[in-house]
């Protein structure tokens, strides 16, 4: 296993011969350590499962299966595990508990079946959608929207039921996402003839007119393209949580493969009109660091209009795809 330029090995007797932060920077080191730890546990006759996808889904499915016959305790501090346990737990099974591992929260044990009985099946079925669309490990959080806010809007539960279906067309998902944005940012706009762009412009102008300081871009409502890709990722995550056999390709649902890893697709439109992009540029002498670069302050990548870096030689340069080799 490699960490930086140094070669490290995990040995049961000698231990790790480097700092754990240095070791964990490389994903292959962490994966090899997990595999090594699993082999040690198997020798002690422990059952070990290695997930191919989302580990939380495997943990919850295993816990629910075990709870059919024995009392089960999941030891972890993770909101997703709590949400998925409440969604998947069977009230007819043996007790299931979620126990915290944090030292500051000693003896914190959540009785999943009691909590599910108290919340009711309607809320528990709604929780995965609520958690995914308001930000989880694979989806971004909507700025200024509290986790519990959608619970106060019953119409949004209808959206949840639609997204939990296994087959939903992308055009339908886009309509659902725009409806979701309307319900959060444009509650006073009930006229369906008013376009999403008109609502955004009205909101931006109102924010600029009423603010005495600079309006933060992150506080503005998402564009229709951003909402579309967000809804695709939410739908993919929901299917992965709910459906035990999910064979959907992430590249078709709001993700793109870059340098061997999946990155979220943010939009398929330019961040601003071309005329405005030409007006925003920087004159940074080096690196274009966040505190000094005007482009970064406006949430833009450096471009050819920038005086020094030209959008290719700084920390804020757009990523470039590696050039594939070819025969000439």
Write the layout of secondary structure elements.
Layout: E1 2-3, E2 6-7, H1 20-24, H2 27-43, H3 55-66, E3 72-75, H4 79-88, E4 96-99, E5 109-111, H5 112-119, H6 121-133, H7 155-163, H8 170-185, H9 196-210, H10 224-242, E6 255-258, E7 261-264, H11 274-279, H12 294-297
Parallel strand pairs: 3-4
Antiparallel strand pairs: 1-2, 4-5, 6-7
Helix pairs in contact: 3-4, 4-5, 4-6, 6-10, 8-10
Short description:
The protein is mostly helical. The protein has four domains: 1-48, no CATH class; 55-119, no CATH class; 138-207 and 218-264, no CATH class; 272-318, no CATH class.
Mean pLDDT: 76
Q: Tell me about the largest β-sheet.
A: 3 strands, mixed
Helical element count? 12
Note the gap between the termini: 37 Å
Backbone CA Rg:
24 Å
Number of separate strands? 7
**Element pattern in H and E:** EEHHHEHEEHHHHHHEEHH
Integer count of domains:
4
Largest sheet strand order: 3-4-5
Percent helix range: 40-55%
Instruction: Enumerate the spans where pLDDT stays under 50 for 5 or more consecutive residues.
Output: 1-13, 322-328
Structural class estimated from helices and strands: mainly alpha
Shape: globular
What share of the residues does DSSP label as strand, in percent? 5-15%
């Amino acid at each position: 296993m490699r960490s930086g330029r140094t070669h490290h090995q995990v040995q049961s007797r000698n231990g790790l011969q480097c700092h754990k932060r240095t070791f964990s920077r490389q994903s292959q080191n962490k994966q090899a350590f997990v595999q090594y730890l699993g082999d040690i546990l198997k020798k002690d006759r422990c059952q070990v499962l290695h997930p191919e996808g989302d580990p939380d889904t495997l943990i919850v499915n295993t816990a629910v299966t075990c709870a059919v016959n024995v009392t089960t305790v999941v030891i972890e501090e993770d909101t997703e595990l709590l949400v998925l346990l409440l969604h998947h737990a069977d009230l007819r099974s043996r007790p299931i508990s979620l126990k915290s591992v944090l030292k500051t929260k000693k003896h914190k044990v959540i009785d999943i079946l009691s909590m599910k009985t108290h919340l009711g099946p309607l809320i528990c079925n709604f929780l995965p959608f609520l958690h995914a669309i308001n930000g989880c490990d694979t989806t971004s959080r909507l700025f200024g929207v509290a986790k519990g806010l959608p619970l106060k809007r019953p119409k949004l539960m209808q959206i949840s039921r639609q997204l939990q279906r296994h087959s939903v067309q992308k055009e339908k998902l886009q309509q659902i996402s725009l409806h979701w944005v309307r319900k959060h940012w444009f509650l006073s706009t009930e006229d369906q003839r008013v376009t999403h762009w008109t609502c955004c412009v009205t909101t931006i102008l109102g924010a600029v007119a009423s603010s005495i300081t600079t309006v933060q871009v992150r506080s503005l409502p998402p564009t229709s393209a951003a909402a579309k890709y967000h809804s695709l990722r939410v739908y993919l995550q929901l299917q992965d949580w709910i459906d035990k056999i999910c064979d959907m390709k992430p590249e078709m649902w709001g993700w793109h493969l870059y340098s061997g890893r999946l990155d979220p697709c943010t939009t398929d439109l330019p961040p601003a009109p071309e005329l405005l992009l030409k007006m925003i540029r920087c004159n940074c002498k080096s690196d274009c660091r966040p505190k000094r670069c005007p482009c970064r302050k406006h949430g833009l990548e450096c471009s050819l209009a920038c005086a020094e870096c030209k959008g290719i030689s700084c920390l804020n340069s757009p990523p470039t795809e590696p050039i594939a080799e070819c025969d000439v």
